[in-house]
Amino acid sequence: MVTKKPDIYEADRDGFQLEQVGIRLVKERSLYSETKIDSPEAAVQLVADALLDYDREVFGLINLQVDNRPINLNIISMGTLNSSLVHPRETLKSTILSNASNVLLFHNHPSGKMKPSKEDISITDQLVQAFNMMGIKVLDHVIVGDATNYYSFLEQCTLPLPRSSYATSLDQLDLRKQKVAEAESVVARLKGTEHPQKRKRSKAKPKEPEL
After folding, report:
1. Hey, how many other C-beta atoms are within 10 angstroms of the C-beta on 87?
2. What does the DSSP 8-state code read for residue 168?
């Protein structure tokens, strides 16, 4: 016997109802490091080490406190050899639930080629606008090639330049620009640190999203 799903817009004996739901983070397996993970640079090193095992593009972000100490990381999507599907709606979820002040975007290029594609640039622009609307700063978007190669959108001036004024008319509205948090990129600071190849590889890799 097939049970008809109740229509939420129909009244029952108590009247009309609006269902109340709760949203919460679900913990996945952690990544482990032999060094303290207290900066964006340390988190990028750990993530880069873990992404070496992937032969597909993986897109994610690191949620950061106001002092840029990492809160957690979230794998947003896992794609093909040369592409990964990313949408601002899915990307913002973990950041909001983590009460993060800043974020660091990252994805890998299994081919090892560091040049961002047109799609990489386009989604970065969409995301920085979406995060900026929520009052959250995007510190950088880092492409990971292998254990030694990184590409920083901020360092290469690929991210839009900051502005200090807001539009007061439709003629002044420009959705292509977004305020950038810092002048120095995470990758620039990584160049002065010891490389993660000298550390023990991460004990667990991010869990693949369920289809």
Report:
1. 13
2. S
- Structure token pair of residue 194: 């010891």
- Provide the β-strand partners of residue 141: 105
Q: Nearest to residue 187, comparing CAs of 47, 32, 35, 30? A: 47
What gap in Å lies between CA 18 and CA 132, rounded to an integer? 31
Q: DSSP per residue over 65-104, as a string?
A: -TT--EEEEEEEEE--SS-----HHHHHHHHHHTT-SEEE
* Tens-place pLDDT, residues 72-105: 999 998 876 556 678 888 899 999 999 999 999 9
Please compute the mean of the pLDDT values over residues 122-140 and round it to a whole number. 90
Q: Which of 88, 185, 194 is nearest to 139 (CA)?
A: 185
DSSP structure class, residue 15: B
Identify whether the C-beta of residue 142 lies closer than 8 Å to the C-beta of residue 152.
yes
Q: Is residue 146 within 8 Å of 52, Cβ to Cβ?
A: yes
